[in-house]
Specification:
Strand content: 25-35%
Number of strands: 37
Radius of gyration: 26 Å
Distance between the termini: 80 Å
Oligomer: single chain
Low-confidence stretches: 6-16
Shape: globular
Helix content: 10-25%
């Protein structure tokens, strides 16, 4: 009898563990199904309001060499738990974030090898996050990932907003197409001039990827908490409409070096039938670990100007101090070189920027080209390119530090590595000590060109670890970091809030090079900004670069749209990127840049459609003032701005910076109008936006 009962018990347990597990989001709209298929492969599917989002998709890994970790599994145990709490970001789009989810954990073991993995699924009201755990175990300790075999099998030929899969850059223009059209468009999408490119040979795209289904669902696929692991691109099967993980390899083709007792990043799927919900999602932040620092009082939002745009205009200013092409760091005596007299980062000129910043309420001045080495900044062929502690002879570090301090302005350090990261790490501690000694509290890092160590990629495991290492070491010196050309963010600014902005996409500098499409900034918030704030560097008022003599580029927006970007492109680090003299020509419009906040109590997504338009309102942290930004693509439109976010029963003065009647980004971009109206919570404003135009509103 005991044997019979015991056998029955095991049959019941076995049936329970092999039966499909279901998990619902707290609001019941999302349903995850998890099970093993007939091969013992873990599979999952996802639905939203009973509409299929992700069809049955396989999970797992192949370890080197061809060791299967994606089939032959049994489910050992499953556990469910829930969480619902509030937390406060150091800097952010809202002062409090709700972290509410239901979780399913599945413990798996391979029958033959006895190797174990666990898969965690967290279902939020706005989407799904899942990740793998490699538990400590007897017969698996150190291993190499050959490939991750995670799938995202889609339900149809969705509309995608995509950039090509690449190991070294995220600076492509976005292409909008059906999945089935990608192959015919990828050649033109990839054949552009960028500083470092390693495109994936098969059809592939980067994350974050936003898509729209024929029946009106919006789906965003990305990852969260990318640490000690390569970034995930997505293979695309344009026949079956299937996506699968494609990890960035290292110099010898391996994907990741892992020790058991660790987790992968989260794979994220944000879903809604309302595009505004995608932009409002904080799921990726919620999937990151809490702040790693006890004291965050030194982490502040920064509004800055800089010796920067003048290098791109063609007006003659240069990063380099001399024209000598044969400099050797540590050997060349720069004081004996003949100055080229075009060096922008000189003491007199920087003081002019400091004066302008102080007079107009800016926090800081970025200075590029201050340090030895810019004459011969050759990527990949040269390892020791710059000194990060020695200034050019015409840049007086002590004098400028004292002068800025007297004016109440900070200088932002610039560390361009030209991707010689091996050398940067050798100099890093001295560079950070140098910053501390001279009262710099923020640094802009750059990674232009192919990586040294040679063969590594910008988005591979080694470089992922490098960026995090720099942020953590900078925090020890109470220094904030803004990284350019780095791997796209995955919410790590929750854990390391001093890493407060990144570029990692096609930014304003491309307005002076190959150009930017009018729809670009209506796509970025649905893609690149899903992972974290972007140092987009808006605020260009003089968009016709031919006035400087050598460039013929023209801006892709109206002036009013440049103002609106300060609201629609969230970042606690915002630059007024144009030359000071151009702001003095348009002082009334410049007022909005001077006033707009950087840190927020609340954000309200009023209108949104990827590739077409975005309108966002935000409340300044700790103040009874609001700012609104609305933008459109090349198509003029009428935005409907609903002011119901304002407190009821009170009236407010709204200053509206709008496109002029004849404004057009191609023919009349500087046409704008400023007017004041009284608004309250019942006001609904119909606002006309020009072609690639915008509106910016200050409410007090």
């Amino acid at each position: 009898m005991k044997k019979i009962l015991l056998t029955c018990f095991f049959i019941i347990v076995s049936n329970t563990l092999t039966k499909a597990q279901e998990l619902q989001s707290p609001d019941g709209n999302l349903t995850l199904t998890f099970t093993l298929n007939t091969e013992g492969t873990p599979v999952y599917s996802l639905s939203y309001k009973k509409r299929e989002v992700i069809k049955e998709s396989r999970l797992g890994f192949v370890l080197k060499s061809d060791i299967s970790m994606n089939k032959g599994f049994q489910i050992v145990d499953t556990k469910k738990q829930s969480e619902d709490n509030l937390w406060k970001p150091v800097l952010g789009e809202q002062k409090e974030i709700r972290n509410q989810y239901n979780e399913l954990k599945a413990d798996l073991i391979q029958q033959k090898s006895k190797r174990k993995i666990a898969i965690y699924f967290r279902l939020f009201n706005d989407g799904l996050g899942f990740r793998y755990e490699f538990p400590v175990q007897d017969n698996l300790r150190h291993f190499i990932v050959q490939e991750e075999t995670t799938e995202f099998n889609l339900t149809g030929d969705h509309k995608l907003f995509w950039i090509p899969g690449d190991y070294d850059t995220n600076e492509y223009s976005y292409t909008t197409s059906k999945i089935s059209e990608m192959q015919s468009l990828v050649y033109n999408a990839t054949h552009v001039s960028l500083a470092a490119q390693t495109t994936i040979k098969n059809l592939a795209t980067q994350t974050p990827l936003i898509m729209k289904t024929n029946d009106g669902l919006y789906i965003n696929i990305h990852e969260a908490a990318l640490k000690n692991y390569p970034a995930m691109c997505l293979n695309v099967d344009d026949k079956t409409y299937s996506l699968s993980s494609h990890l960035v390899p290292d110099a010898v083709g391996n994907k990741g070096y892992i020790q058991t007792g660790s987790f992968t990043p989260w794979r994220t799927i944000v879903v809604s039938d309302d595009a505004r919900t995608i932009l409002a999602s904080k799921m990726i932040l919620n999937l990151n670990e809490p702040c790693a620092f006890e004291d965050t009082s030194w982490i502040k939002p920064v509004k800055y100007i800089g010796v920067w745009w003048e290098y791109f205009t063609g007006g003659g200013s240069t990063w380099a101090y001399s024209d000598n092409q044969d400099v050797v760091i540590g050997a060349t005596d720069f004081s004996k070189l003949k100055p080229n007299k075009t060096h922008g980062a000189n003491t007199k000129h920087v003081k002019e920027y400091i004066d302008f910043a102080a007079a107009n309420g800016f926090d800081a001045v970025l200075v590029e080209g201050w340090n030895e080495g810019w004459e011969d900044n050759t990527a990949f062929k040269k390892e020791r390119i710059y000194s990060f502690t020695k200034a050019y002879p015409d840049f007086d570090v002590k004098d400028l530090s004292s002068y800025a301090n007297q004016k109440g302005v900070k200088i932002i350090m610039h560390h361009e590595t030209t991707s010689s990261t091996a050398e940067y790490e050798r100099q890093l501690h001295d560079a950070l000590d140098f910053m501390t000694d001279n009262q710099y509290n923020a640094v802009k890092t750059g990674y232009v060109g192919p990586i040294i160590p040679r063969g590594e990629h910008h988005d591979g495991q080694q470089m992922v670890n490098h960026y995090t290492y720099v942020a953590k070491e900078a925090a020890k010196h109470k220094i904030m970091v803004d990284s350019h050309e780095a791997v796209r963010p995955t919410g790590l600014h929750r854990t390391y809030p001093n890493w407060f902005a990144q570029e990692s996409a096609r930014g304003t500098e491309f307005e002076a090079m190959e150009g930017i499409h009018p729809d670009h900034t209506t796509i970025l918030p649905f893609t690149r900004l899903m992972g974290g704030p972007m140092d987009y560097t808006p605020g260009i008022f003089q968009g016709d670069l031919s006035v400087y003599g050598s460039k013929k580029n023209k801006l892709s927006t109206t002036l009013a749209k440049q103002l609106a970007l300060y609201v629609t492109m969230y970042s606690p680090l915002q630059m007024a990127a144009d030359l000071p003299e151009n702001y003095m020509r348009f002082k009334d419009a410049f007022q909005f840049i001077k006033e707009v906040a950087l840190d927020w109590d609340e954000s309200y997504i009023l209108e949104a459609e990827p590739g077409d338009y975005i309108t966002i309102a935000r409340k300044t942290k700790g103040k009874q003032e609001w700012f609104v930004g609305g933008i459109t693509d090349e198509n003029p439109r009428t935005a409907l701005i609903d002011f119901s976010f304002l407190p009821a029963g009170k009236s407010y003065s709204a200053t509206i910076y709008e496109d002029g009647k004849t404004a057009d980004y191609k023919t009349n971009p500087q046409s704008y109008n400023i007017r004041k109206v009284t608004v309250n919570s019942k006001t609904k404003l119909k606002q006309k936006l020009a072609s690639s135009g915008g509106v910016a509103i200050s409410i007090k």
